[in-house]
Amino acid sequence: MTIKLSPLTIGKREFDFTRPYIIGILNITPDSFSDGGEFYNPKKAIEHALRMQTEGADIIDIGGESTRPGSEPVGSDEELARVMPVIEALVPQLDIPISIDTCKSMVAEKALDAGAVMINDITGLKGDPRMAGLAASRAVPVVVMHIKGKPKTMQVDPCYDDLLGEIEAYFSESIGIAESAGVAKNRIILDPGIGFGKTYKDNFKLVKNLREFEKFGCPLLVGASRKRFLSIDDTYAENERLEQSLAVACMAVLNGAQFVRVHDVLPTVKALWAVSRLQNV
Q1: Each residue of 140-165: pLDDT tens digit?
Q2: What are phi and psi of 8, to 5 degrees?
Q3: How far apart are CA 152 and CA 197, in angstroms?
Q4: Among all residues, which ones are annotated catalytic?
Q5: pTM to 2 decimals?
Q6: Can you list the alpha helix ranges (DSSP code H) found in the chain?
């Protein structure tokens, strides 16, 4: 049976989970896997965020460090130089919340100071020991993602004895870290980390079995947009995976996801509108 979730306040908005929510991806990087460099220019990044809001995004997730397979980390100063001008420009213009996608507490803190109201941490609060305390002190929601390894090497022969069980154990540990630091349970969002140390089959298995994670009583987020496992035998490039991305977003919602993190906002809005109508016939 699906667990009923309490409403979640993110910034000035309440998310009551009566419908799925769309997180628009804004990568301010030269090397992200799908749109690296496309929005590296602050003016283009700002325009794109405003466009995603118009198209129906519920949250804008801003990141200044690529975490694609094989990527190299960047320093906090460089990451801040990329994201801060965009966050500062967008806060007075957006009516929807801004999330900061970072695993560095220093970057998250500066972003929150500038008006971001959510943290998206790909290390599940295990990368920076200050991150959980920061989320607690600011009373902001935090996305806890599962990752096996680090971005540079995570796709070098990832292997699990028990995929779902190991991710459940990881979530239990991350939730423990969060709650020990004072993060309220109802401010934790779980992300199984599609493509982050997973095989081709693992990714599909996770989408199919999302309800296994409902036992934690936290909202679930799926970010599968344009990822390589949707390439169909490496035939289609990143910008040719829209239809596959929409199919996975719809299936994720049908299987219990409350949030989907996507590059293509308007097509996802349209697809999930149909799913919602079908569910409520």
Answers
A1: 999 999 999 888 877 888 889 999 99
A2: -120, 125
A3: 10
A4: 227, 261
A5: 0.94
A6: 42-55, 76-90, 105-114, 131-138, 163-181, 200-208, 242-254, 265-279
